[in-house]
Specification:
By secondary structure, this protein is an all-alpha fold. The chain has one domain. α3 runs antiparallel to α4. The longest helix has 30 residues. The radius of gyration is 25 Å and the shape is flat. The termini are far apart.
Length: about 120
């Protein structure tokens, strides 16, 4: 019984956290104005009148740059944290570090190979 009482605030917070976004979305339907117009249906381009089609083909290279940046950002972040605590880590933890770095670098090489910048 005491375990339930101990975790009751955490359970209430979890329910509130999970329920907040759907509740806010549902409530916004009642408070927003609903006045459709031709001006609101046009594509917004920094205050200018839109020219041409709004939907264009997105180039893969921008996605590639984002993926490579995120991978190297993760590597740098984890390496800094692990460098501070490296002497206290067990051998199993060090093996997991190397495994994670290998997996992240495989992802980078895959992305670069897909872009055909390097040949492995």
């Amino acid at each position: 019984m005491s375990l339930i009482v101990e975790y009751l605030p955490l359970a209430i917070l979890a329910v509130l956290t999970i329920g907040f976004a759907p509740l806010a979305w549902w409530m916004s339907r009642f408070f927003r104005p609903n006045r459709p117009s031709k001006w609101r249906d046009t594509t917004y381009e920094c205050g200018s009148l839109p020219i041409g089609k709004a939907q264009i083909q997105f180039k893969f290279q921008y996605y590639l740059f984002a993926v490579v940046f995120v991978v190297f950002d993760l590597i740098a972040t984890f390496l800094m944290v692990w460098a501070v605590a490296f002497s206290d880590l067990t051998d199993l933890a060090k093996c997991w570090i190397v495994f994670m770095m290998v997996v992240l670098l495989i992802g980078v090489f895959y992305a670069l190979k897909k872009e055909e910048k390097i040949w492995i």
